[in-house]
Fold this protein.
Amino acid sequence: MKATASPADWLLLPDMQIIQASYLISKPDVAQCPPADRPEFAFIGRSNVGKSSLINMLCGNQRLAKTSATPGKTQMINHFNIVSRTGKKQRQEWYLVDLPGYGYAKTSQKTRKSWGSMIENYLRKRENLRCTMVLIDSRHEPQKVDIEFINQMGEWQLPFAVAFTKCDKMKPGGLERNVQLFQQTLLETWDGLPPMFLTSAEKGLGKDEMTAFIAETLEG
Ligand SMILES: Nc1nc2c(ncn2[C@@H]2O[C@H](COP(=O)(O)OP(=O)(O)O)[C@@H](O)[C@H]2O)c(=O)[nH]1
Ligand SMILES: [Mg+2]
């Protein structure tokens, strides 16, 4: 199993610190998003998977993205202005994007369809989008809606990575089991596995690995 970068890989990864993070704007359509004048990194996953919490954890600001116990609220493309610093490249400005969640049971067929075309347009047309982090709730066995989304990313040939969320809620054995099941399910349709991260917004787990990965992606 290779759920996170191994220590050897990790030494080669850039050390990155987010020094400023602020909310910019929320828009319902890619055409209305801010100018694509800097690299962009997006976060997506089921409603309630922990997207906003993970974004806040990475940025070190608990009030940056709105978190809630009521899923299905955010139906917008939410842009955040980020300034980060790496050892190699002094200062970098980029956008972090919080995308609306999928798979919320109570949404209507119509809402689901408009979500689909909005997300497809954003993911395929946003020219500065470098990578999308797909969040997976580590408490569950592989969910159809997550696997379908990942396979869709493959069909669109778009780069992505996977972050397992809420790992603090799992015992090590259960976590490893769910991660392995997820990997096995992906290997039914994929030749290899994407970069994967074990995270907990609650405990700060995975922060260094994810920021290093983002830094590398933004530079590439
Ligand atoms: N224990 C634990 N709870 C979390 C974690 N991340 C999110 N949550 C909780 O899960 C719920 C949904 O989180 P939120 O970030 O709003 O999810 P989003 O809908 O994907 O943006 C909230 O009640 C959070 O407090 C985590 O790492 N650990
Ligand atoms: Mg949210």
The longest helix spans residues 109-125. The chain has one domain: 7-219.
